[in-house]
């Protein structure tokens, strides 16, 4: 499994890189491009922080907004296989307010797309 060092919301993490592939299947050119473009646009992660806090507040309106890492711990980048050649990358992580399903912050074509449990991309 490949890993990458990435700064997420001001903190450095070593994240697993997970490609949406069947056993024995190679990554697609589109998936490689999605990862490359995502890594070149580091500001998209920073810009998504407000969406992450909003998502946390939907689960618990009393959360403190001073430190997102009290609630979310980034663990991996999931690069989804798509049929329409869109580039979909999800930052997957542990989520204190939903330990079973975690959190996925999903980006499509290098812009924030949606946020939810990891089920939205798996």
Keywords:
single chain, 122 residues, alpha+beta, 3 helices, 36% strand, globular
Verbal overview:
This protein is α+β, with helices and mostly antiparallel strands and 122 residues long. The protein has three helices and six strands; from the N terminus they run ββαααββββ. It has a six-stranded mixed beta sheet with strand order 1-2-3-4-5-6. A hairpin with a 7-residue loop joins strand 4 (88-95) and strand 5. The chain is globular and about 45 Å long.
Question: What is the count of helical runs?
Answer: 3
Q: Give the N-terminus to C-terminus distance in angstroms.
A: 17 Å
How big a fraction of the residues is strand? 35-45%
Morphology call: globular
Low-confidence stretches: none
Give the biggest sheet: 6 strands, mixed
Instruction: Give, in order, the helices and strands.
Output: EEHHHEEEE
> How much is the average pLDDT?
95
How many E strands?
6
* Largest sheet strand order: 1-2-3-4-5-6
| Class by alpha and beta content | alpha+beta
What is the CA-atom radius of gyration, in angstroms? 14 Å
Measured as a percent range, the helix fraction is 10-25%
Sequence-ordered SSE layout with sheet pairings:
Layout lengths: L1 E7 L2 E9 L9 H12 L2 H5 L1 H11 L12 E8 L8 E8 L7 E6 L2 E6 L6
Parallel strand pairs: 2-3
Antiparallel strand pairs: 1-2, 3-4, 4-5, 5-6
């Amino acid at each position: 499994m490949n890993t990458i060092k990435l700064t997420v919301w001001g903190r450095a993490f070593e994240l697993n890189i997970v490609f949406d592939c069947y056993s024995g299947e190679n990554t697609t050119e589109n998936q490689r491009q999605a990862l490359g473009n995502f890594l070149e646009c580091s500001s998209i992660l920073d810009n998504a922080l407000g969406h992450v806090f909003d998502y946390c507040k939907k689960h618990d309106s009393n959360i403190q907004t001073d430190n997102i890492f009290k609630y979310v711990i980034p663990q991996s980048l999931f690069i989804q296989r798509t049929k329409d050649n869109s580039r979909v990358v999800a930052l997957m992580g542990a989520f204190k307010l939903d330990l079973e399903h975690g959190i996925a912050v999903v980006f499509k074509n290098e812009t924030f797309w949606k946020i939810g449990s990891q089920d939205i991309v798996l």
